[in-house]
């Protein structure tokens, strides 16, 4: 007797008569759509028909019949013919004649009213078989033998894995097992056969879906894609390997396994986050790369957490083993400069020959901190950039592979954010192969405590990515699945997930004791035979290799490791530049010599300024209707150009436009950046009469300009900022900007800022010129959208507050030594210059700009063309130029400030008629701190009190950063007072009246010459 799994028999189909009665009440006009069949269903059995699974089978039969009437049972052929011919409701279904009667000898009239119980049963049975096939396709993975340990804790609450002793679920009898059934077009288990006995159908379904591979794909709503996957797993005998392929697989397993064993012998007390328990990952990745290379890919960018990274570097990227072994020697420095990072966080870039395809392949493994999935969007951004720069618009040459741990894949939201970028036009990388190293455990946390879904991979279903679960102790199944995954990506250019169900032989690291928390699992692991040993025994039993050959393969790789270990003791061998994941060849030299530490003028000639301004104030496309309000905005821009002035938006436009002329690609990304959150930018114009017709004037500036990419992002900060960081990694000859909708939105991207942007060069010697635009300013709009939290960025600056730097080329050399640049511009011209300086510098540093909100339209926040002409440059400090500067000896107070508060201070100073008594100096560049210029300002006003004035609260903003540096500047000759809001927990009040009261108190303090008598 054949046993059927209830978990694949949960959905019981309608009987044929129910189905027929339901459908026969339709009137169809040829050719009909299946939706028409559904729309007019009769009450009889309509509800179960519409809600049950069987409607899918009828639909599949209907479409199969449209293509080939002979592909369905004759009774269905008659029904569909009659329905399409316009048969009256209730008459489309006619019982067919006995099987012994030739259909061609009977007329339609002979069927009317005839009852054929045996034929009805045959129709029901065929429909039941189709339901059975579908159940295996949908749920076969539930009972597949995926766990090498045999203790899988995957929980399917809605489908308990039990065994049925009969076949009655589908209205079939045990006697039906040897009956022959016609196979539907939605299965390939028949191979060249169109019909099979039920017993053989079930056996083949079990072999396809319930062995060491579990396939999740039936949620995909594309029939072609589903058919493609069915063909790959259902076709009899499709998973075959030649003896040569098996020997290659064994050799790769030898390298993977013996590498870990070598590290364990040499450095048994060192953390390395080894791959033991999932050694098959190495042949899996090499298979994906081999197949992708065969399909035309020549650049693969990878990201992964720390587990197995050293093995991937050694045996996939093919990094020199001595460079890896150096990292274990405590006597050697891990970096040439900066902090360096631990060996299992480092990246690599390598171009080599793929020996399987004999094609060149470039492999890049992106460095990643312990924040596991944080590298996902970075890899995607870098991949997108490499595709962009080589003109690979379909992802045929450049691709990404992302490795994940099971707990992190399910638990970290950045995975979901990154998946949702996968199909967006400006972010898609045209398919990523995701490989999950499914240890079935987090650090010490069981899956039932770590996720609410059955599988860790369920998050991938949101983008209809097929998921291939595979038992990692079956190397051939793993390699087959990886081949299919690479082919899927090459064919459909969509994401795909390979879930390697494995185990972790040691604890979270090699020093950890896992028996504390998972005693039963680790008792089983201790008994588990390593996958290399299992596979070697299998191949020896098959006669593919013999024992001496196997031992020789092991000895050969052990010798390679020993020789590399000997070479690693040379102190000259280690160099951090061997670990670069994004080299920029040619950028750091000019004519073979290091580039000069100078920066040319960032000004622009008036002809170019005028030309850019005219394009910015026009619509360079004919028959294009813009919004009336936008027409007024463009007209205002045109008037400014005539008057030789710019506002904030126009200054940005001119900076971008001038760089495009010089061949610098510009990419501006973020939430609503095309128009601008504050409706100031309007870089994408929308035709008011033609849906989705747009125009980007910036791309119509010059005949051979670089392209300008401006793209609204998904409502994501963590994912999108990581993506743009990765994009900026690919080339130094691009200006990549991410704009937060409001400055405080960067909070949810803090991991990217903390782990990649701030310390990136110190940890990985990786320069990056990404620009963060963070709208900032206290304007009574509440605590959520007021502060970009400048104190956080300034706290992470690496300049010493107690040391006055003694440098030649002070301004540029200071920039070279800092970890990032932090500015708060108060004029459009200075904003223009700092954006251009970002590209004209001979190196790349991240740039943090606190951009304004109210200043976007402030009548005084305007700049003249004169401030942007050749010879001009970015002003780190803008001194007072009014009456106070004319008689500096008479000045009683110098107010140092930054950003928008300057305009409040000047208005108040004028109202109090104190222009000659109080000087106001603007600090435009906060980090690196302009010690030299502020020293000059302090010495210029010898009798004046020095006050730092800010609109932010005292425990926030700039004060804690500026005060010690100002005191170092003046050698602590006098105190530095504070004028601003009092300390607070929230960044701003939500009450407009309170905001204005606080602002007035700030101004009163700043201009009251007796205000500091009681302060210390």
**What's the structural domain tally?**
4
General form: globular
Helix content: 25-40%
Number of strands: 30
Count of alpha/pi helices: 35
What is the top-level CATH class of the largest domain?
Alpha Beta
Flag low-confidence runs.
1-55, 96-115, 158-166, 334-338
- Based on helices, strands and strand pairing, what is the structural class? alpha/beta
Could you tell me the strand content as a percent range?
A: 5-15%
Distance between the termini: 93 Å
Say which CATH homologous superfamily of the largest domain is assigned. Thiamin diphosphate (ThDP)-binding fold, Pyr/PP domains
Q: What's the Cα radius of gyration?
A: 35 Å
Strand order of the largest sheet: 5-11-12-10-9-6-8-7
CATH architecture of the largest domain: 3-Layer(aba) Sandwich
Main β sheet profile: 8 strands, mixed
Using the coordinates shown, work out and report the CATH topology of the largest domain.
Rossmann fold
What is the average of the pLDDT values?
A: 85
């Amino acid at each position: 007797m054949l046993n059927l799994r209830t978990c694949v028999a949960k959905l019981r189909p309608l009987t044929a008569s129910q189905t027929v009665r339901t459908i026969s009440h339709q009137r169809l006009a040829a050719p009909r759509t299946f939706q028409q069949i559904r729309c007019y269903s009769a009450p009889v059995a309509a509800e179960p028909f519409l809600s049950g699974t069987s409607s899918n089978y009828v639909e599949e039969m209907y479409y199969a019949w449209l293509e080939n009437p002979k592909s369905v049972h004759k009774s269905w052929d008659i029904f569909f013919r009659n329905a399409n011919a316009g048969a009256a409701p209730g008459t489309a279904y006619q019982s067919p004649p006995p099987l012994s009667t030739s259909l061609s000898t009977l007329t339609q009239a002979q069927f009317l009213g005839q009852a054929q119980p045996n034929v009805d049963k045959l129709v029901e049975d065929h429909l039941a078989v189709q339901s059975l096939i579908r159940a295996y396709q949908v749920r076969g993975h539930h009972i597949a033998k995926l766990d090498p340990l045999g203790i899988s804790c995957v929980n399917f609450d809605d489908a308990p894995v039990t065994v049925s002793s009969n076949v009655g679920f589908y209205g079939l009898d045990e006697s039906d097992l040897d009956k022959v059934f016609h196979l539907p077009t939605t299965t390939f288990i028949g191979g060249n056969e169109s019909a099979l006995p039920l017993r053989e159908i079930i056996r083949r379904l079990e072999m396809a879906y319930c062995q060491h591979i579990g396939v999740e794909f039936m949620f995909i709503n594309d029939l072609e894609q589903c058919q493609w996957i069915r063909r790959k797993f259902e076709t009899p005998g499709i998973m075959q390997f030649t003896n040569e392929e098996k020997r290659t697989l064994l050799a790769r397993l030898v390298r993977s396994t013996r590498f870990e064993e070598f590290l364990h012998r040499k450095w048994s007390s060192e953390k390395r986050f080894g791959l033991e328990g999932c050694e098959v990952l190495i042949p899996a990745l090499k298979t994906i790369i081999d197949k992708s290379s065969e399909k035309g890919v020549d650049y693969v960018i990878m990201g992964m957490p720390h587990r197995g990274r050293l093995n991937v570097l050694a045996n996939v990227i093919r990094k020199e083993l001595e460079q890896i072994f150096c990292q274990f020697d405590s006597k050697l420095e891990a970096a040439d400069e900066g902090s360096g990072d631990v060996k299992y966080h480092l990246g690599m870039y390598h171009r080599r020959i793929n020996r399987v395809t004999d094609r060149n392949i470039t492999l890049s493994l992106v460095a990643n901190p312990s924040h596991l999935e944080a590298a996902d969007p970075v890899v995607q951004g870098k991949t997108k950039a490499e595709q962009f720069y080589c003109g690979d618009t379909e992802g045929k040459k450049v691709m990404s592979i992302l490795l994940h741990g099971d707990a992190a894949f399910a638990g970290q939201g950045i995975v979901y954010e990154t998946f949702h970028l996968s199909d967006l036009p400006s972010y898609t990388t045209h398919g990523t192969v995701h490989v999950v190293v499914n240890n079935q455990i987090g650090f010490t946390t069981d899956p039932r405590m770590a996720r609410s879904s059955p599988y860790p991979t369920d998050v991938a279903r949101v983008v209809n990515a097929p998921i291939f679960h595979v038992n990692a102790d079956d190397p051939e199944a793993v390699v087959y699945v990886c081949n299919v995954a690479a082919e899927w990506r090459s064919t459909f250019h969509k994401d795909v997930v390979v879930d390697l169900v494995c185990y972790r032989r040691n604890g979270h690291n090699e020093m950890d004791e896992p028996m504390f928390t998972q005693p039963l699992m680790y008792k089983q692991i201790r008994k588990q035979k390593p996958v290399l040993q299992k596979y070697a025994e299998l191949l020896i039993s098959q006669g593919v290799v013999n024992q001496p050959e196997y031992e020789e393969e092991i000895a050969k790789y052990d010798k390679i490791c020993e020789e590399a270990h000997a070479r690693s003791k040379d102190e000259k061998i280690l160099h951090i530049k061997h670990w670069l994941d994004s080299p920029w060849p040619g950028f750091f030299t000019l004519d073979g010599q290091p580039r000069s530490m100078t920066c040319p003028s960032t000004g622009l000639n008036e002809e170019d300024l005028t030309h850019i301004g005219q394009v910015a104030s026009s619509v360079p496309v004919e028959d294009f209707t813009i919004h009336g309000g936008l027409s007024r905005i463009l007209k205002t821009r045109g008037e400014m150009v005539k008057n030789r002035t710019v506002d904030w938006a126009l200054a940005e436009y001119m900076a971008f436009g001038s760089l495009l002329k010089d061949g610098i690609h510009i990419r501006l990304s973020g939430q609503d950046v095309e128009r601008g959150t504050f409706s100031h930018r309007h870089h994408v114009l929308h035709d008011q009469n033609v849906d989705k017709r747009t125009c980007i004037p910036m791309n119509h500036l010059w005949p051979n300009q670089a392209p300008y990419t401006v793209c609204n992002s998904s409502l994501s900060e963590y994912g999108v900022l990581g993506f743009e960081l990765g994009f900026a990694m690919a080339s130094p000859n691009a200006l990549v900007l991410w704009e937060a909708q409001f400055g405080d939105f960067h909070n949810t991207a803090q991991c990217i800022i903390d782990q990649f942007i701030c310390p990136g060069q110190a940890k990985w010697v990786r320069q990056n010129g990404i620009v963060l635009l963070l709208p900032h300013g206290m304007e009574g709009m509440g605590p959520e959208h007021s502060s970009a939290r400048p104190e956080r960025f300034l706290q992470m600056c690496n300049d010493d507050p107690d040391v006055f730097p003694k440098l030649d080329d002070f301004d540029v050399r200071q920039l070279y030594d800092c970890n990032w640049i932090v500015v708060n511009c108060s004029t459009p011209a200075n904003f223009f210059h700092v954006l251009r300086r970002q590209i004209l510098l001979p190196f790349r540093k991240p740039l943090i700009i606190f951009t304004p909100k109210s200043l976007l339209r402030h009548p005084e926040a305007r700049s003249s063309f004169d401030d942007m002409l050749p010879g001009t440059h970015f002003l780190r400090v803008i001194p007072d130029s009014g009456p106070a500067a004319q008689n500096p000896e008479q000045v009683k107070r110098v107010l140092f400030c930054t950003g928008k508060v300057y305009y409040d201070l000047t208005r108040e100073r004028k109202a109090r008629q104190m222009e000659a008594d109080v000087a106001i100096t603007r600090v435009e560049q906060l980090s690196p701190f302009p010690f030299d210029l502020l020293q000059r300002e302090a010495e210029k006003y010898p009798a004046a009190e020095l006050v730092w004035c800010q609109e932010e609260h005292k425990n926030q903003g700039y004060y804690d950063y500026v005060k010690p540096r100002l005191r170092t500047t003046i050698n602590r000759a006098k105190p530095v007072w504070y004028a601003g809001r009092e300390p607070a927990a929230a960044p701003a009040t939500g009450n407009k009246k309170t905001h204005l009261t606080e602002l007035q108190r700030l101004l009163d303090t700043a201009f009251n010459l007796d205000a500091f008598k009681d302060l210390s």
